[in-house]
Amino acid sequence: MVHKKLLSWVEEIKNLCGPEQVVWCDGSEAEYGRIMNKMVEDGMAVKLNQAKRPNSFLFRSDSSDVARVENRTFISSKNKDEAGPTNNWIAPDELKKTMSDLYRNCMRGRTMFVIPFSMGPIGSPLSKIGIEITDSPYVVVNMRLMTRIGSKVLEALGDAGEFVKCLHSVGAPLEKGQKDSTWPCAPIEKKYISHFPDDRLIWSYGSGYGGNALLGKKCFALRIASVQARDEGWMAEHMLILGITNPEGKKKYFVAAFPSACGKTNLAMLIPKIPGWKVECVGDDIAWMKFGSDGRLYAVNPEAGFFGVAPGTSMGSNPNAMMSISKNSIFTNTALTEDNDVWWEGIGYDAPKGRIIDWTGAEWDRSGKKLAAHPNSRFTASASQCPVIDPEWENPQGVPISAIIFGGRRAGTVPLVYQARSWRHGVFIGSIIGSEVTAAAIGLKAGVRRDPMAMLPFCGYNMGDYFEHWLELGRKRDASKLPSIFCVNWFRKDENGKFIWPGFGDNSRVLKWIFERADGEGQAIDSEIGFIPADRAIDLSGLNIDSKMLKLLFRIDVNEWREEIESIREHYKRFGSRLPKELLEELNLLDKRFSRNK
Ligand code: GTP
Ligand code: SPV
Ligand code: MN
């Protein structure tokens, strides 16, 4: 290999971080097995019951390192204004100095792995290559399931190809003779998840968990890629991609953006409750999208695996996910049963008899109030194991998108589904998405927060400019070819705090209406907030739902919306002059419609 820039960067990092040895990952199964076995030997991983869950492993993280850390995540653009009001910013020189000091000899006593990886099918015009340098063997095995790694990527890179530099360390050097901990990491104030968009560079230090450490995912495929997408005229979005086929065999593809832990994986592989319909999965978390020469929007999944929320995943809620994780999978922070299988709250059956070890490694007290699995415990599995993986999921051209769906967790205000009147109105709807905070990030205040396009923690530049990028992509285009835009809310609650809508497989009823609307059919009424399903336009056959509850599900309450409008005004103030005036116009229009109908 003669990629001089790559070789010299690896040499530079080796000199900075001072590892015991350097290993270039070839991505082979043998390598995977070797690294896993070593971790089992060292007590960092538990090999699960081979008969029940072949070739699968459980990891338990440090209790301080269980999710993304938004207050330790930085967008280090040239100036603060570039990062915008929603990102943490430190000047690049200062941050590089601080982190270089941390990185100095931080891999002492450890192996430094070099992982070449491709986001997107290797060789696709929509794909991009990254190189992750890490001292975490856990990261290596996860990256092998989540992305395409190894020698074939180096071949594609050639001797002068472009790549995103991704440097990661758990930030826990080992002294001679020092026993390693089972989940090395640094204390919270030393964790840095840093992005240098101008250098297309990622520096992550101190955390080994999920999006903090698997740098292809949120750091590259969203934060850095969103900047590349802005510069190159495409979109990098926190969206699932699904294919949906009606009983006549007609197929469409949808993308959907919901904040973390709000139902993307579940929707992406749902089994419809309405006869004759079929859903297939292209991706469950990230979509890279570009307009084709035919004027349509095309999407690829840059990932190759799922890093899904375990709690709540069951044969009832998501059988396809359960089947995807039946073998060759990694589990992090779930509980362990006496016969060496995994268990979590909401897996669909009671914890089996015998000793249960909780996610902290302690024996679980069944009568106690402590959870056995961490609420952000996760599974990692290759997408190829999903029974409903779409036949086109690795199509290098992507799949054509007919609808964009936004959503979030809202106990009130937002009805089950409504449709935007135009692309511009749809961008407005995306920009005001709010959601109750979940366990996917550490240290957030409970309550509803605005999470525009589900990208609040993932947009690598000024979010005002990001809105403008969305608007710009829709301008001057044939509106008949643009995807229709929708908003959904599976999470509306009744006065007793119970979810009204059954969700999961029943969400297919909403997808059906969206399919019909995207097809120019499907009955709708014009409301203050957009098009809502006409009476009986949503297929509720076979569903037992009280008519009072149904009404509540679709209610557009003037007082709730007045409050909503005020809260959107506050939200918009953050962006100052970077807020596109079209969005303010949309807000004023919404306000007017409610005043008229007072
Ligand atoms: P990230 O991987 O963090 O981006 O999350 P995600 O958006 O893929 O969320 P996921 O599908 O893993 O769902 C998160 C949680 O929401 C799980 O506990 C699910 O059981 C729950 N959930 C998903 N869909 C529904 C639904 O339709 N109704 C209800 N009530 N809960 C749901
Ligand atoms: C999310 O938080 O949106 C995730 C999990 O998909 S992580 O990869 O940890 O970011
Ligand atoms: Mn996500």
Pick out its properties.
binds manganese (II) ion, 8-stranded mixed β-sheet, 598 residues, binds sulfopyruvate, 9-stranded mixed β-sheet, binds guanosine-5'-triphosphate, 16 helices, alpha+beta, 21% strand
CATH class of the largest domain: Alpha Beta
Proper CATH architecture of the largest domain: Alpha-Beta Complex
Give unreliable regions as ranges: none
Biggest sheet: strands, sense, closure?
9 strands, mixed
Mean pLDDT: 97
Helix percent reads 25-40%
Query: So how many helices?
Result: 16
Beta fraction:
15-25%
- CATH fold type of the largest domain: Phosphoenolpyruvate Carboxykinase, domain 3
Rounded to an integer in angstroms, the radius of gyration calculated over CA atoms is 24 Å
Sum up the overall morphology in one term.
Answer: globular
What's the number of extended β-strand segments?
28
Bound molecules: guanosine-5'-triphosphate, sulfopyruvate, manganese (II) ion
Number of domains: 2
Helix/strand class:
alpha+beta
Task: Please give the alpha-carbon distance between the first and last residues.
Answer: 70 Å
